[in-house]
Amino acid sequence: MTLLSVEGTNDEILLSQKQRLATRIYIILFLFSIGIILIYVLFTFQINLITINSPSLSKFIELQSKYSSTLTCPCSNIAILYLEFVSIQPLTYHQICSSHFISLDFITTLWGTEEPVEFALNYDRKVLSSLFRILSSLCLLTKNQIEQNLKIFSTKQLITLKTLTYDSFQIQINSIIDNFIYQLLKDFQWIHHYIIDMFHANQLVHKFSLNWNSFQSNAQMSYVLRTVPVWFNESNQSCLCTTLSSRCFRSQLTSYNKTTQIPGLNFGCLPIDSLRQSTFECFYNSTCLNQLMNFYNISNVLNQSVLSRFNSISTVTIGQLIDELFIETWQNSSNYSSYYLSCSPSSCQYSYVTRNNILYMITTFLGLYGGLTIGLKFFVWHSLTIYWKIRQYITYQYRTNQIQPLNSN
Fold first, then answer.
1. How far apart are CA 277 and CA 264, in angstroms?
2. How far is the C-alpha of 236 from the C-alpha of 311, rounded, in Å?
3. Is the pTM of this model over 0.70?
4. Phi, psi values for residue 202, rounded to 5°
C-alpha cells in the first residue's frame, strides 16, 4: 500500500510538471501568435474592386483622374474608322496654284502663234509657256493625289482593345497625322523623281531641241537624221545633256535674236528640270515683271505679303514647292468624344486600397483567437506527449544496453 501510494504520488507530481511545462509553452506561443495576429490585422490593407456598367464620357474622365493606375475600360468596338474621329485637310496652297500664271488664258497667250517663224526664232517663249503648263498640271495633280490619299486614309481603322485616355488619344492621333503627311510627301516625291530619272535614262528628244539638236544629212549619207547633245556653256561652265542632264541650265532667254536674263528663270535639258530649278523671284517684283512683260507682253504680280511657311518665299525653288505638294498649311482636327462613343466601353473596372476598419479588425481578431486557443492547446499537448514518449523510449533503450551478463565462475 505504501509503495502504491508513493508511486501514485510520483505519477501525479510528474503529470503536474508536464502540465506546467505545457502551460508555459502554450502561453509563450499564444502571446507570440496574438502579436502576429495583431500586426496582421493592423497593418494589412484591403483591395476593393469596383465595376461600373456603361460609363459616360464625363464619368470615365472622372475615374481616370482618380484611379488612372488601375482603371481598365475594354472597348465594345475595337476597330474604329479614322473618318469617325479625325480630319486632315490642306488649308491653303501656295498662291501660284490659284494665280493667273497657271490659267489657260495666260498659258495660251504666252505660247503665242503657231507660225513656223515662232518655233524658229521665239521658241524660248513656247518653252516658258510649257513650263507654266507643267506647273498648272502639277498643281492639279497634287490636289488630286491628296484627295485620293485622304479617301484611303479615312477607310483605315484605329485598333484599341482598351479605351484610350485623352492624352494617349492625342499622342496617337498626332503620330498618325504626322506619319500620313510624311508618307504622302515621300510617295509623291518617289514617283515624281522616278519619272524624271526615266526621262533622263531614255534620252528622249524634246520637240524644242532642249536636250538634243537634230541634223538631217545629205544624199551621200542617205539622209540619215543625226542628233547631237546640247552643249551648255554659260558662266564658263560647260555641260552636256548626255552626262549631267539634271545639272545643265541656262538663264538667258532669246526672242527674235534678242536676249535677256530673267532672275529666277532657268532653262535646262528638259522642261521639268527647268521648272524645278527656277524660282518665282521675278513674279514677286513688278520691275522684273515689266522687263518680262516688255519681252513677252506679260502682266500681273504675285503677292509677296502673303504668309508662307517657305522661307525666302521669292527665292525658294519650284522643285521644293513640288516636293511639298504646294501645301502651305494643314488643317488637322480630332474629336475625342466621337472616339469614345465609337469605342463605347460596356463597363469599367478599377480598384483602390483602404485600411481595415475597426469592425473588420475585431471580427478578424476574434475569429482567429477562437481557433487559436483550441488549436494551440491541441498542438502543444500532443507535441509534448510525442516528445515525452520518444524520450522515454530512448532512455529505456540506453539503460537496457548498460546491463552486464553474470560471470559463470
1. 8
2. 31
3. yes
4. -80, -20
